Amino acid sequence: MPFTLEQLTARFGGRIEGDPAREVGGLAPLDQAGPGHLAFLANPKYLPQVETTRAAAVLITEEALAELKGRGDALAERAFVVTPNPYAYFARVAQVFVAAAAPRVSAGIHPSASVDPSARVAETATIGPFVVVEAGAVIGEHVRIDAHVFIGRGTAIGEGSRIYPNVTIYHGCALEARVIVQSGAVIGSDGFGFAPDFTGEGDARTGEWVKIPQVGGVKIGADVEIGANTTIDRGAMADTVIEHDVKIDNLVQIAHNCRIGAYTVIAGCAGIAGSTTIGRHCMIGGAVGIAGHLKIGDFVIVTAKSGVSKSLPKAGMYTSAFPAVDHAEWNRSAALLRNIDKLRDRIKALEANIQSKGAPE
Amino acid sequence: MPFTLEQLTARFGGRIEGDPAREVGGLAPLDQAGPGHLAFLANPKYLPQVETTRAAAVLITEEALAELKGRGDALAERAFVVTPNPYAYFARVAQVFVAAAAPRVSAGIHPSASVDPSARVAETATIGPFVVVEAGAVIGEHVRIDAHVFIGRGTAIGEGSRIYPNVTIYHGCALEARVIVQSGAVIGSDGFGFAPDFTGEGDARTGEWVKIPQVGGVKIGADVEIGANTTIDRGAMADTVIEHDVKIDNLVQIAHNCRIGAYTVIAGCAGIAGSTTIGRHCMIGGAVGIAGHLKIGDFVIVTAKSGVSKSLPKAGMYTSAFPAVDHAEWNRSAALLRNIDKLRDRIKALEANIQSKGAPE
Amino acid sequence: MPFTLEQLTARFGGRIEGDPAREVGGLAPLDQAGPGHLAFLANPKYLPQVETTRAAAVLITEEALAELKGRGDALAERAFVVTPNPYAYFARVAQVFVAAAAPRVSAGIHPSASVDPSARVAETATIGPFVVVEAGAVIGEHVRIDAHVFIGRGTAIGEGSRIYPNVTIYHGCALEARVIVQSGAVIGSDGFGFAPDFTGEGDARTGEWVKIPQVGGVKIGADVEIGANTTIDRGAMADTVIEHDVKIDNLVQIAHNCRIGAYTVIAGCAGIAGSTTIGRHCMIGGAVGIAGHLKIGDFVIVTAKSGVSKSLPKAGMYTSAFPAVDHAEWNRSAALLRNIDKLRDRIKALEANIQSKGAPE
């Protein structure tokens, strides 16, 4: 299914520079593109590749195109689609090509699936083999639920959502439209809540951790993506909330009663402890840990591997991680850090000594 | 199923102050409670809410009630259940309300489940759709095993345990009574053990990592809870052991031949390397890493994000994590830390200089 | 199935010292071995255990045996198999004993499995209950796929591989021979790729994260092992590649377009961000984080909990983690570190003061 550039801009916008009848039948990076490909220039440092690419057409910004022309490059053979955001344009076109290339999946419920009679499954939804849909669940239009997924009682999956194999969504959760959940993710597991009930000290300590029933749910807004093996706990009393357009990577832990603001992205291996609120448009780096009961404002960036133990109400970038260096060198610095109070004391002694000698003559 | 306060105290203990016939039919926080609710005061800072709550009754300590009375508050309309631990009391009552509200699940084996004829499944157990129970496994009384769970050959699940959907428990493991395993958890996977068998240096290095068969099992004591997508490896020769009343959060890794002492809690994203022993009543914070072959004593607290590389035999609180601060400020401190030896040298030079000038006159 | 030492050395090499007809029927550590056991001495510090062990025979190096003899120990009753690498020898023998003890599993497809007619499954392969194998997948000779595994369309599983229960392998992936995948692992999930398409600042910011379709696959070389609940994302355009003989522990995240070099081992809870290349024979410690688009050379060791934010082209050991110490002590050092620029300024002031006083007389 090739597109002419004219068809492309009719659908996705942008201005054509070159032959509008030129066809593109696939996408590729500038340096790997062949004659039928659409390529894109997102980073100015690859400008020279535009001159040498074999791509049929290149997605480009006005500014980059002007610079190319300023260089006096012979662009006669080239065709361009000019757009303020070539990378996003590329992504949207790629989605269409990929969807067209994917095998057709027929709507309907696989005969091996176990769907409770009281669940409502839209006719356009696709339910894969060995899926379990419990009582009262609601599966929206064009939802696709892959093999081995578990949907608990009363849980709602919004239209156009895609749930990959082996995902578990407990009872009483609600996903809005177009949510994507990668394999192995768990949504709605019990939050980690126990009331300590112990008496006595030391070896005489007896008692138990009394489980607090977790009766809140998980609410997930439209256009959220959740990565493989990520876990999102249900709330204790109120819900855990993931607002719309949040993107969460793999192996992320989101504890009970968190609220993650719209458009925020959370990279892999991060963990957010209970009842913490994160604002909108935040970027949480890989393996970041955020303690419980904090408030993170809008537009906060936390760099990878950092730990957050206090609220960060103000927009900005925050860090507490060191980059790895030579092991022996690190150990020397670490030993000095452990004794940094001794350095401070030596400075103090020097200051006292100097002062006792009076001001310099 | 409302309770009168009299019925409540008959079952859970505590002393009634107010009308023993007053009924409670649900639980809620002080500030959200309605007239039929039981609320609780666990934290003295919420004492003012007790004066304004609409709750039918409040769980409270003797001390807090005395303080309320000391304030001269008009408590005539109030009813209290006085208990030394209102939060634990609340949790126990909540468990009963939640269990009563949950849909009845009939005992028995779902027709789609694959249960080996040599497995022993108690008549009161519930086995969900597509569950696999292998040869020789033993499923105790009132156990509930949800959809898509795998129970390997010879594994025993103790009475009253609850295994949520998509859990995998390998062969040769044993869970005692009332263990809860959240979805996606894996128990009994092979430990990470390989014998290096290489010769030669640099590019000439050849050989292989020879897998050490992992023939130990996993033993899990009574009343343990294991979080979603947590992994507990089987032992190499001896067993990996989780003692009773241990609570483990989501995405925690427990390597082969660890032993975790009773009542210890481990927060999300923590990782414990092989053959490490953790004592009783410890609290391991989120994203903590503990190296292998260490001994952690009883009553040890490791704060979130810390790394433990030496044994910690003594009770106490241990830390190695920094809180995130402004990125530019952090980078300045980090650069100075990397060159802290130069600061030390400058101090040394100053000391030498001062000394060569003799003691102050 | 006991072996005589003669049979053992015929199969696994090594030199017998003692009675070649002596039989061993199992393996055990030196201090737990009984009369029918083969034990091994890998660490010289356990040499005294060789003198007291009840094992029928001991795997030992020439050097250790010479030392024993030098001690004048009466070794007449002992039998030894002398080998340069007793631990690897032990592992290889253990594999045979364990395989022999494992219950026979018949080849074939479990009647409950859902295998697309266009998939090719070798006659010697074993497909467990509720397994899904999609169209065009290829399952090699002697592969064993356990319950609830999902194999996406067109994915190839190489001969002798073992896929444990509840593993998900998406479409378009390829595993070579003898790959082991522990339960809950996810291979081929979408990489975390989104093109930002936003305009406006602050509260006025609008737009969306446009998903970049992930059309690369995952290629996994022979003899790789992948731990429980580990995730390996598919590439965006090109493939994510795990070279042969790589060993990956539990709960590890490997992002899209990474390449992990042969023989590298990655411990639990580590995370590697997108497009990073790791060389051969590296050792990545537990909970290490490595940023994206980096190049890590061959023979690099990164110690546990470290964060890598720059390429490490040279072999060596790298670190950025502190060991946990007493909490109050840590907080004092951390406060001084946060103000280390003030210490630096005080040193500067002292230096200026000294200098203004002239050189020492």
Domain count of chain A, please report it.
3
> From the structure provided, what is the oligomeric state, counting identical versus distinct chains?
homotrimer
- Low-confidence residue ranges of chain A: none
Task: Summarize model confidence as the mean pLDDT of chain A.
Answer: 95
How many beta strands in the DSSP annotation of chain A? 40
Q: Which strands sit side by side, in order, in the main sheet of chain A?
A: 8-11-14-17-20-25-28-31-34-37-39
Name the CATH architecture of the largest domain in chain A.
3 Solenoid
Describe the protein's architecture and organization:
The structure is a homotrimer of 361-residue chains. Chain A is an alpha/beta fold and 361 residues long. Chain A has 3 domains: 3-101, MurE/MurF, N-terminal domain (Udp-n-acetylmuramoylalanyl-d-glutamate--2,6- Diaminopimelate Ligase, Chain: A, domain 1, 3-Layer(aba) Sandwich), CATH 3.40.1390; 108-318, 3 Solenoid (UDP N-Acetylglucosamine Acyltransferase, domain 1), CATH 2.160.10; 328-356. The first copy, chain A, is 19% helix and 28% strand. Chain A contains 6 helices and 40 strands. In chain A, the strands form 6 sheets. An 11-stranded parallel beta sheet of chain A has the order 8-11-14-17-20-25-28-31-34-37-39, with no helix packed on it. In chain A, strands 9-12-15-18-21-26-29-32-35-38 form a 10-stranded parallel beta sheet, with no helix packed on it. Chain A has a 9-stranded parallel beta sheet with strand order 10-13-16-19-24-27-30-33-36, with no helix packed on it. In chain A, strand 6, helix 3 (62-70) and strand 7 (80-82) form a beta-alpha-beta unit. The longest helix of chain A has 17 residues, at 340-356. The termini of chain A are far apart. The mean pLDDT of chain A is 95. Chains in contact: A-B, A-C, B-C. Chains A and B meet through strand 22, strand 23, strand 38, strand 39 and helix 5 of A and helix 4, strand 40, helix 5 and helix 6 of B.
